[in-house]
Design brief:
Largest sheet of chain B: 9 strands, antiparallel
CATH architecture of chain A: Beta Barrel
Helix content of chain B: 10-25%
CATH superfamily of chain A: Nucleic acid-binding proteins
Shape of chain B: globular
Order of helices and strands of chain B: HHEHHEEEEEEEEH
Shape of chain A: globular
CATH topology of chain A: OB fold (Dihydrolipoamide Acetyltransferase, E2P)
Structural class of chain A: mainly beta
Number of domains of chain B: 1
Number of strands of chain A: 6
CATH superfamily of chain B: Calycin beta-barrel core domain
Number of strands of chain B: 9
Number of helices of chain B: 5
Largest sheet of chain A: 5 strands, mixed, barrel
Strand order of the largest sheet of chain A: 1-2-3-5-4
Largest interface: A-B, 47 and 66 residues
Distance between the termini of chain A: 48 Å
Radius of gyration of chain B: 19 Å
Distance between the termini of chain B: 59 Å
Order of helices and strands of chain A: HHHEEEHEEE
Oligomer: heterodimer
Strand order of the largest sheet of chain B: 4-3-2-1-9-8-7-6-5
Strand content of chain A: 35-45%
CATH architecture of chain B: Beta Barrel
CATH topology of chain B: Lipocalin
CATH class of chain A: Mainly Beta
Structural class of chain B: alpha+beta
Radius of gyration of chain A: 15 Å
Number of domains of chain A: 1
């Protein structure tokens, strides 16, 4: 029930553009996440795991009736994030209100892949790779005759 | 003068085929290739694979490391461990083997050895763009340090493969200079890694020959030939590049720290979640 009440912002133009990009990651985005289920949520950061191979952050999301659900988002490991401008303890911290766009897990739980995060400063940053990542791309690497 | 001409010819011959790549990686004069004390091109530095863009890591990876979505819309996407370089031909597998590769592709590569944090092998490790590679060169040996999966290779120059090689993930590498090109011969692989891209398995008969040609300060032309008569119908050749990323340091990458992928895949299958391709 909670899931249905979440305020869905739908597919933004940016998200559409992201779908066209090639892929990048340690393991299969495509198996875990559904590129046809984009999600944009705003909430308060409760925890951040800066871990390899991938990082995770959690946000409390309030629906229009005041019910709160905790969502988990996956993205790049800390080395990749650092190289691309993320500073641990600065860019995003527990307690910050953020907005995140990504794609939902195939198992329907409150778990998603994070692509773009609008952090508390208003800056937009990429936390994870585009949709369809790590599962071999849009075309197989071989031709089967 | 003759050496200058030869270098220019080599640079032109090895230049990337795409127009976009050519515009960003025009052959440069030999004088810009840094030289080691023994006169060989010095490959020492931190490099990024799968790119032809010059500059620091941040300059070359506008769009926060993912390419295409930042200030430079033409920036190539960063190559991951599951991608083929954009200019690479499709893998020439024997029909039975191509079917096996396709099977992995259809299950969206959940059988990927990297998802278990195992070493990625060559050339999967060495064509990556998402993680940097550091090269340390001496006249006697060249050391490759890969951030991804914390792998390394110590390559003796003019060395010979040992007689008692046991199969390994990263294989046994020996190198030699052919003019200004470093040639690395790799054999002694196990059959537990993927070459480049989802499902691209191989046998223990895999033999990889890599050619590294630094054409100017910023760019190494990286040409790879993979031979495996047990699964490939002909050698698989990939031409790609490594670009210098001054100021970049290798970060720690401990894959086993928090690897949730295997449990996730198991849960998907147990709960009959449809994640496969048609």
């Amino acid at each position: 029930m909670m899931k249905r009440k979440i305020c869905w912002m739908g597919v933004s133009l940016a998200a559409l553009a992201m779908l066209a990009l090639p892929l990048a990651a340690h393991h299969s985005f495509g198996a875990e996440y559904d590129a046809s289920k984009p999600v944009t949520l705003a909430g308060v950061v409760t925890k951040i795991d800066w871990t390899n191979p991938h990082s995770y952050f959690y946000i409390d999301v309030k629906d229009d009736k005041g019910n709160v659900a905790n969502w988990k988002f996956e993205g790049y490991g800390p080395g990749v994030l650092y190289r691309n401008g993320w500073k641990r303890g600065v860019t995003m911290k527990p307690g910050d209100t953020i907005t995140v766009t990504g794609w939902r897990a195939r198992d329907g739980t409150n778990w998603a892949h994070a692509r773009q995060v609008t952090v508390a400063s208003g800056e937009k940053r990429m936390f994870g790779p585009p949709a369809g990542t790590g599962d071999g791309g849009a075309a197989p690497p071989v031709e089967v005759k | 003068m003759r050496r200058v001409g030869a270098a220019l010819i080599a640079a032109v011959a090895l230049a990337p085929v795409s127009l976009a790549a050519q515009s960003q990686s025009a052959p440069a004069a030999k004088s810009t290739v840094p030289r080691a004390s023994d006169g060989k091109p010095d490959l020492t530095g931190v490099w990024q694979g799968g790119s032809t863009v010059r500059g620091s890591w941040q300059e070359a990876n506008q769009g926060n490391g993912v390419g295409g979505s930042g200030k430079n819309p033409n920036a190539p996407a960063v190559l991951s461990a599951s991608d083929r370089p954009s200019t690479a031909e499709k893998a020439p597998y024997q029909p039975w083997a191509a079917q096996k590769v396709l099977d992995s592709y259809k299950i969206r590569a959940i059988d990927d050895p990297d998802a278990e944090c195992l070493p990625p092998g060559i050339p999967r490790t060495s064509v990556l763009g998402l993680f940097p590679t550091q090269i340390v060169q001496t006249p006697q040996q060249i050391v490759f340090l890969y951030e991804y999966m914390h792998e390394f290779r110590v390559i003796p120059i003019n060395g010979k493969h040992r007689d008692d090689i046991a199969p390994t993930y990263m294989g046994d590498s020996v190198g030699y200079w052919e003019g200004d090109t470093l040639v690395v011969d790799v054999t002694g692989f196990n059959d537990k890694t993927w070459l480049v891209g989802a499902g691209t398995f191989h046998s223990e008969a895999l033999h990889v020959v890599e050619r590294y040609t630094r054409v100017d300060k910023d760019q190494i032309n990286y040409d790879i030939t993979m031979e495996d008569p047990k699964v490939l119908s002909k050698p698989w050749v990939i031409h790609t590049h490594l670009m210098l990323r001054e100021g970049t340091h290798l970060e720690e990458y401990v894959c086993a720290e928090n690897n949730l992928a295997p449990a996730f895949y198991e849960r998907l299958q147990k709960n009959n979640v449809n994640f496969q391709r048609p």
